[in-house]
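name: query_chain
kind: protein
chains: 1
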Amino acid sequence: SIVLFLMEKESHELGLLFAYYLARNLGWKVYYLGQNVPHIDLLHVEEITSCNLFFTTVTIIRSNETIKALEQIADNLKTPLLVAGSQQILNAMESNKGIHVVSKPDDFSDFLESYRA
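structure:
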């Protein structure tokens, strides 16, 4: 299963809705949390759902703040985090073992297909 969410201060759900459609179309069970999800809640969701992946999109550009928040989320979760959205943010992200950058919808679909295999 996969959990879809937007970080705090994020409210643009279009990418998240598209990811929901793609994941469901590939047969994944999807938990859709929506926008402005506090980081601490993700730990509880991980515990309750025993999910395989988390996915978020980033549209608001607050480079350092956003990158630190994503890295903190990835460090606290036991489950891999997929991140899509603003190329400025994605290009600035350093290697983090828990974060997988998704540049386009095909990358997302390919990752989901290969992750299940």
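note: The CA atoms of residues 11 and 53 lie 21 Å apart.
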